[in-house]
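quick one before i forget lol
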Amino acid sequence: MIVTIYYLIPGLRDLVSFPTFPGGSGILLVGGGWVLGKVLVKRFRIQPIENYISSDATLFTNAALTAKERGYWNFWSSR
């Protein structure tokens, strides 16, 4: 899709070389996603996906684990 955009915009080939265009686009997409994530977490208080992955909503709930198993699970899931 980025290649198509590169060839469809008139004059873009004169301004930017082809290897620079996908690289710059990738940096903008990743950076934009990172900034959007920070804004969603800080401003709108949306939990990051890491909280859902490492939460207690796993195959085993805390109620089903003994204290020893829970300690082991929490130790390894926090890494």
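fyi Residues 20-42 form the longest helix (23 residues).
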